[in-house]
Every structure is written in C-alpha cells, then in structure tokens.
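A quick aside before the break. I want you to see a complete sequence-to-structure record at least once, exactly as it would be stored in a machine-readable document. Don't worry about memorizing anything.
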Amino acid sequence: KQWYQRRVAITAGIGTSLGIIYETKLNPSSDKQLVAYSKILYNLDKPEAITGLVYFHENGDPKQRTVVIATTPTRIYQFFGKMRSNDQCKFGAIFGESFPEFKENIESLGLMAVSYIKYPEPRSLVWMTGVGIQYSKINIDSLSFDEGNVLSENRLTPFTDKGIPVAIGVTEFHLLLLYENGFEAKSLINWKHVHYEPLRTMGGTYNTLALDPMDHSKFFCSAKQSIIRFKVHKEERNVWRMYMELRKFQEAEKYADGDQAKLFEIASEEGDYYFEQKYYEDAAQTYALSHRSFEEIALKFINEGTTAALMNFLRTKLDSIGNSNNPTQICMLVVWIVEIYLSEISSLEKQQQSSEEKSDKLQSTRADLRNFLSNEFVIRNIKKNKPIIKVIQEMMASYGDTSDMIYFADLMEDIEKVIMHHIHDQQYTSALDTLRKRRSPDLFYKYTPTLMKYIPRNTVDILEQFGRSLDPKRLLPSFIHCKTTDQKEQALRYLQFVVFSTKCKDEAIHNFLLSLVVQQDDEGLLLDFLDKTDANVDKKYRLRLCVDTTA
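That is the input. The structure line, written in tokens, reads:
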C-alpha cells in the first residue's frame, strides 16, 4: 500500500502453480501500465505449484550474494548468486549461475512462512510437510553461503490432534497454526502447546494467516468475509522459564531481563543441575547467587564431604552479601570460613607427606587464610562485632595455631596480645620490635621492666630512639630491679642519655642516676656527674648515699 501511494516502482518475484518463477516490476506512477515488465527466471524441473518465495542477502548486504528460497508441495529450493542492480532483470543472474540446491519431502503440503529478527533480517523458516511442520533456522553469514545451505537446526514437529492446519506462521518464539475455526500457538523453544483461540466467523471458514514483518506483535487471520487482527503482548515473558526448564541457563538469564526474582530462580535451578552432575565447584558458585536457604545449601555440601565446594559457596555468598544490613550473617560466614581454613591447616600439619610437598600446601593454605583475614571488608565487619574477635581467637588457640593468632591479633590492633605471646614464647626481640612499630608509650611503660630483664641493651637502644616522647620518670620502675652488671650499665646509659641529651631536670631521675653512678666505683665519673647536676640532686640524699657508700 505504501509503495503504491508513494508511486515508487518495485521489483517482485512471483511463483506460479506450474512451477515457473517470474521477475516482475510494478510501476504505480504509470497511468497506463502497472506492470512495467515480466520475465521468466526459472522453470522448475518438477512442475508443481510454488507455495512460498523469499530472498535474503549475505550478511544483510545487497552488494553481496543473495539466496532465493522457493518452496513447493514436495521441495525446498535454494538459489545462490549475485543480484545485478544495473540490469533490468535484477534476479536473472542468480537463476542462471548454478543448479539449485533442494530438499525433497514426498508427502508435503508445501506451505511456508518466515520470521524476522528485524525486517529484512530473517530469523527462521517453517515448511509444512505431510507428516508435520519443519522448522529451520536461517543463517545469512558468509560460511552458510559458501556451503550452499542457509537452513540449519532443522526440526520436524508432528501435527496435533486438531488436525492439519490450513495456514502457518512463525514469530520469534512461537509457531502459529491456523485451523478452519481457530488457531493454535506452540513454543519454538520446548515445542509445547501454549494457547488455542477459537475463531467465530460471519461467513465461511478461516484459510489465511498473515504476519506483519514490520511489527512482530501483529498478525491477521482471514476468511471470505471477515478479518481478525491479533495483538501479541510480551511474547517473550515466559521464555526465560522455558529455557530454564531445558537447562539452557545462559539463554534463561538473557531473557530474565535483569529481573532479580527470575535470576534467583534460575541460579537455584542451575545450582541443582550442577550438584546432580557432581560439578560441586560450579554448584557452589551458582547457589551463592540464589535465594535458597543458606543452611540448606551448606548442609548439601557437608553431606557430600566436599569441603572445597563448601568453602567456595561460603566465599561467594559472602561476596554476594556485600554491604548489606545483615552483619550477623556476615560474621557467621567469616567464622565458618576461618574454621575451615584452620581445620585444613591442622590436617596438613598432621599428614605424613614429604616435607617439601607438605610445606608448599601448608604455606599456600595459610597465605589464603591471611589474605582472607586481611580483606578490608572482612576486617571492617569483624571490628564491628567484638565477640566475634574473641571467637576467632579462641578457635585459633584451640587448634594451637599461634602464628595465625598473632597475625589476627595484629590485624585487630590487639597489640598487647601480640606482645604477651612473644614474651610467653621468650621471643623478646619480637616483642620489642612490636613495641617499636606501634609507638605506644603506655605499652612501653608496661613491658619495659620485662624486656630490661632479658634484653637490656636492645631495650635501651629503642628507648633512646623515642627520646622525649617517653616520660623517663614512668620508666624508673623498669630500672629499680636491675641486678646484673649488664642491666645496671644499660640503665645507667639510658638515664645519662635522659639527663645530658634530653636535659631532663627531674630530681627523681637525677637521684636515681646518682645511685647508679656511685655503684660504679669510679670517682672521676662521680665528680663529673656531681659537677654537672649538682643543682638537680637532693643534697641530703646525696650526702646519705655517699656516707653509705664510704661505710
């Protein structure tokens, strides 16, 4: 209608009941002759009615090759060639270049219909045979043209108990079958019945079914004296479920169109499929994306004894929760994951493997645990829940995993626990190094007495590095109980540093330093000290100390 109203000439192919294919040019701008020319293109070697005639371009490009598909009651023909836009007869070269490829079905009714992705790009073709309806996917890629066959994925579906249709049509997802008093829709995905619509007419029975190639949602059924127009609403709405039931999960996700409820259901079904096939790792990844009960899925893996898959599920589930307002579940997942790691580490330590093999696996597992614990998201959520910190520490202690317990305490900034552990294990240098890194004066005041007892020189080295940031008066208890010569010498060194380098004027510091100097039995050192610090030493204490020493 549009081309006629706009007076635009078009070229059309026509198939006759005698098996002759014509090319015809219609020229509505001429008032005298509508048909500008008509030329025979091909005369089939088996004369029978042509029931369908369509053509498509390679890759949708008119400048490339073209295929013409013609159907008869018994055959499907494919003619390949290249159109010549400059010639009066555009299709002539196609029918003259090669012998057509065809598929034959002796018992056939010959009706044919085509669906389009977007006109004129084809999607599929249906052809009605004597025993059912053949469905084929149309491929217009270069490889299909090279092979001389654009029809693939052929499938024959039998007629239903409603009999043989009088007309057929095909949409993106459905096969339409027109009967004399109604039409039926069947899914192209699972080939099941979808809908049947009885048709009432004012005269005669229905015999024609036509689809609008420009608007996929419309089709028409006609009888002699009536036409009914149908409007399809959301034809694809149940496609995701059909694909899911066929276990084509990627296609199902595609047609879920981002609907979270549908995606959760697909993930649940896909997880069940992988679990049935014993693909436990894949099942774990997929289950975590569903809304299935956390306890139910975990129990499935536990019953199968698949620790790796359970770990995978827990980790993926934790990632999927993200920053949700469910801190309890997050902490539960974290504790469970840590427990699995600790159990595996303990098991590896007990196994009788070669030292190298055992060491590599053990180091890898411990590295995984520490990477997990140091994850920013994990740390942030654990710190919000103090009892969880204690639970994890107690688990590590129960497994005897002191190295990871110290690592975790350090992450949680529980420095005292780290220091106490090092001291308990007589790792005094490590304890001192932890103090140095954390730079906490209160911790220095608390643990310097112990460190001065075992590593006095190293301790004083660090104390001097901190200089005025430490209050020497609060450190005096660390030096009062120094008994060995080395301890006393290092205490003397630190107090001399405080008095002479930091210019400390505190009387208590000077008095205690004097007591240490007197014990050195070095008159020159004593006189030099008194000369420099006389004003800051209590004179009565100095006199009493000298008298006691002389006596």
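Two observations worth writing down. The radius of gyration is 45 Å. Residues 1-7 have pLDDT under 50 and may be disordered. We'll return to this after the break.
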